[in-house]
Design goal:
This protein is α/β, with parallel strands linked by helices. The chain is built from 10 helices and 7 strands. About 40% of the residues lie in helices and about 15% in strands. Helix 2 packs across helix 3 and helix 5 packs antiparallel against helix 7. The chain is globular, with a radius of gyration of 17 Å.
Length: about 270
Amino acid sequence: MSAPIPYFEVHGDRGPYLLLMHGMLSGRSQWLLNLPALTAACRPVVVELWGHGRSPAPDDPALYSYRGYLDSFERIRSELGIDDWFVCGQSFGATLTIRYAIQYPERTNGQIFTNSASALVAAAGQDSSQSRPDLEKHAQAIAAGGLKLIEQMRIHPSHARNLPKEAKQALLADAALINPRAIAMIFRHINGSSVVDLLPRNSVPSLLVCGSREKSFTPGRIAAEQNMPHLEVVMAEAGHTVNIQRADVFNDSVIDFIQRHGKDSN
């Protein structure tokens, strides 16, 4: 029996394909304010993490690993019948898309990412890994506590500030669909999320759209600038969710990047 595929949907009918991968406790609504503009220049492929939104929560632990996610992206690409695409990761999603672009440069026309403490946490002098007993204890607590415990997590959209009302309501609706068992599986099977050591291996055009108000991400931005070849950075007056808070800057920057690095532009 073939491995399952995360939920995905394709928007638009022209231009190159663009994989859009949201972060933890989010869903397809992460891109609500971006899709109308992006579909004028590309075909966004909106994917949801395992156990988020409309994606299943499979039992196979291997699917929750980084290797498992990269394989799932490859299955989606194959199902679309395309040779290459652009990729974009938001927050935790960037830990996946950056790995994908480094692992499969021949299939990646370019990559975009936003503020991601999880991807660049080592830049702040922190160790993103925890002991296996601590991770297992946390996973067990999430599995037992269910959505009530998940709602208490700092990254839950109910705690987000400065978001347009429409976007926040959509994020809350997606968060209500989260499967706690899948969140527990992530904690059990992803130990250490930093990509800082991988950055020098990047060989594709890259764009960081950075929310300048998230001061805790400054060391991560600097680490990317210093260690990631082929990187350009666009700063926006926004916090962590820059693609929502400054959708205009994000949309314009991504469209310009795709138009400059699409194969038709070479």
